[in-house]
Amino acid sequence: MSTLEATKQEPAPAETSSLRGYLGQNLWQYGMLTILIAIVVTFQILTDGRLLYPDNVAALVQQNAYVLILAIGMVMVIVAQHIDLSVGSIVAFIGGYCALMITEWHWPWPVAVAASIAIGVVVGCWQGFWIAYVGIPAFIVTLGGMLLFRGLAVLAVSQTVPVQDKGFGAIAAKSLPNALGFLGNLDGMTLLVGVIAIGGLVFTQVRSRRELIRYDLRLEPSAAFIGKLVVFAALTAYITYLLAESTDGTPNVLIIVGALVVLYTYIMGNTVFGRHIYAMGGNLAAAKLSGVKTKRVTFLIFVNMGVLAGIAAVVTTSRAGAGVAGAGTNYELDAIAAAFIGGTAVTGGIGKITGAVIGALIMGVLNMGLSILGADAAWQQAIKGLVLIAAVAFDIVSKRLANSSQ
Fold first, then answer.
1. In the 3-class helix/strand/coil scheme, how is 189-255 assigned residue by residue?
2. Would residue 24 be called left, alpha or beta, if left means φ above 0 and alpha means ψ between -120 and 50 degrees?
3. Lowest mean pLDDT among 120-134, 189-203, 268-282, 385-399
4. pLDDT digit string, tens, across residues 62-96
5. For 64, 84, 109, 334, which has the most beta carbons within 10 A of its beta carbon?
6. So where does this one cross the membrane (predicted)?
7. CA-CA distance, 103 to 397, in Å (whole number)?
8. Parallel, antiparallel, or unpaired for β 186-187 and 182-183?
């Protein structure tokens, strides 16, 4: 047989086992999405349809923006086998100074926002130095940071500092301007954003699949690929419709969160830095032997966490309309819970940004649904705790079953 004939007969990239086998291997990812949809449907029934009122959907995004932002960074921290207990206190500390910059120091709000993120960088450098280069465990450093920055927040804003700047308030409390008018009773700008989101989703997924084909890598079954695209496109279209029907359209903070999710999903999946994080979480000793500069990567992970905490501080302060020393309470627990519920492994090495988004939405829907039903806040906390335990238990059990079947 000639070389040309052999080349012609080379098989196309193989699909990963069967559809059933693929779904079994990705049980967690699809299971959490199914659970989220089930929770939404359940509360939609229990609340007589009030959960998915257009204005409630917009409020859901605005109320949980801080969790979504912090969970992005927390996934990276946990995948690398670390933890960060300080982000809630950092949010209060940076948010307090952000309010002071605008109200008492009379800085323009864009400058105050940039300075707040810069403070986050400094805080991240401080904690990253002790963890990466001195070798103190992240649990201890960030526990100390939780106490340190909460104390500094109280010293900075012993009393509430109101922020009355309309431009700053619009970051988290307002929506995109309706520059395109209405299509019936639907906001034109929101419809455009939805079309762009669906188009971007299809384009990136198809491009990723073509890259796999190009390098002869194994593919997910065609049925799973098409089904995934259809489901996510349909969900995006439905959310777009609800937001387009809401009073103000697309919240500004949704654009911020969406941009961060897209950016960090790319970083974790397509960059050397992202691959090094997964390598460290999977096997730290092997990563060192492979030439990964683990100290540098660890340092940058916490610098990045500081940046995201600064962004979350800006969003939180903007939504509250004031700098408050008590802001950010339990934010670190919400972010950690979102990461674990979304499938990030307790032992590190496994986790996705999109999974953390699903985890944050599960908690957000639970909070909103229970609030609409008039449930006590204590029940909300208790239920979130049960969901977290169940999520981690399911993760451990599913891995044991997967290992036993191999």
1. HHHHHHHHHHHHHHHHHHHHHHHHHHCCCCECCHHHHHHHHHHHHHHHHHHHHHHHHCCCCCEHHHH
2. alpha
3. 385-399
4. 999 999 999 999 999 999 999 999 999 999 999 99
5. 84
6. 27-46, 58-78, 85-103, 109-131, 138-159, 179-204, 225-244, 250-267, 297-315, 356-375
7. 52
8. antiparallel
Coil, strand or helix at 368 = helix
Structure tokens, 41: 């449907």
What stretch of H or E contains 337? helix 331-341
Is residue 88 within 8 A of residue 330, CB to CB? The reply is yes
Q: Tell me if residue 322 falls in helix, strand or coil.
A: strand
Name all domains of the chain by residue range, CATH numbers in brackets: 53-174+251-399 (1.10.3470)
Q: Are strands 322-323 and 182-183 parallel, antiparallel or unpaired?
A: unpaired
Q: Count the Cβ atoms, other than its own, within 10 Å of residue 111.
A: 12
Helix (H, G, I), strand (E, B) or coil at 16: coil
For 330, 333, 373, the CA distances from 379, given in Å and listed in that order, are 16, 16, 12
Contact by Cβ (8 Å): 379, 2: no
Helix (H) / strand (E) element for 331: namely helix 331-341
Joined tokens for residue 395: 């993760």
Over residues 119-151, the pLDDT tens digits come to 999 999 999 999 999 999 999 999 999 999 999
* Single-letter amino acid code for the residue at 306: G
Contact 361, 90 (CB under 8 A): no
Cα angle 126, 127, 128 (rounded to 5 degrees) comes to 95
